[in-house]
Amino acid sequence: MHSTDPGSSGKSPAADSPLPGVALPAPAVPAPSVGPSLEEAGLLPLIDAAVLDELEDELAGTGLAQRFARDYAAMWDLRLARLGTAVDSQDEDSALDAVISLKISSAMVGGLRLARLAELLEGLIRQGDFAQGQAMMAGVARDGARTVSELQATYILEKG
Asked: Which pTM value belongs to this model?
């Protein structure tokens, strides 16, 4: 007979609550998926000019913000190669160093999408999921190149 109590599953009481002093096992928690997060990252702008404007204001218009943006663009190929090598060789320490550097520097130049992708990749590296990390590298490379192109077109050349 099923209980009419809305909080009951209709199973035996032992299935709904542990016996005194007996804990139920924790439910299995699936590993986080980067699927929806990748889709959300794709909605972020490549460059948020307001971030660069704020950096320029903080540096009192000294030209350091533009120099930082130029250096960021010039270092893109090296950053990508370093990160790709570390992910391919499954070198967790080097991969974390490279991806955190990419995440922070991208955020500083307003590269919101690339910073978010780097954050997602960092999570995969920390989980030891290098297979999925390697699969993500194509998107990082694509959006990184697009970020650098937009940065050059909308900020470096415009301000230089």
From this structure: 0.75
